[in-house]
Write the structure tokens for this entry.
Amino acid sequence: QVQLVESGGGVVQPGRSLRLSCAASGFTLSDHAMHWVRQAPGKGLEWVAIVSFDGGEEHYADFVKDRFTVSRDNSNNTLYLQMNSLRTDDTAVYYCARNFIPEDPRSSFDTWGQGTLVTVSS
Amino acid sequence: EIVMTQSPATLSVSPGERATLSCRASQSISSFLAWYQQRPGQAPRLLIYGASTRAAGIPARFSGSGSGTDFTLTISSLQSDDFAVYYCQQYDDWPPYTFGQGTKLEIK
């Protein structure tokens, strides 16, 4: 079945870096744009980034611009989020999510991973 | 950036009753609106897209309506596993995609 599994979360000091991965299965990753969404403890959902189906286009929320980079390896069915210059307010569960309509980013998110927790603390 | 505002923040309803959740966009988003359910400790799940189309496998007791700036999610005859947090999301004007702050549906 269609599945997304995130990994790579953990505890990291402010200013350091971390890379998250999202392994896709049950569908052709290269058909879909993909997203990262985060949720701080006890808070709501916050969109972080999108990467186009072929990795040629990326967009970010203002609060992560110039610090985070989204990328993908379609040959290995994996999505990534490189997070640099981490701040304490980046502490959250990070979810990867599939764009419902494969070629159209004007779409809802139909499949979500279980999330990976990133804790930024000294 | 389009701001999504959900009301109420918390809704207390008895099992078997109907729940009505509201979502308002700060500008028109046509029907580019989705609803998600999030149970404690779980990832969000897509319920409704296009303001009124149920996602695959979603029971018919969930229905969405509205267009432009005002939207409603209705859950008829609430069941025990419907008590969760519900989020609306606009995907008309991006980036960024924006979510409402959520409505917690609790057992009365």
About this structure: The interface with chain A takes residues 32, 34, 36, 38, 42-46, 49, 55, 87, 89, 91-92, 94-102 of chain B (CB under 8 Å). The CA atoms of residues 61 and 76 of chain B lie 5 Å apart.
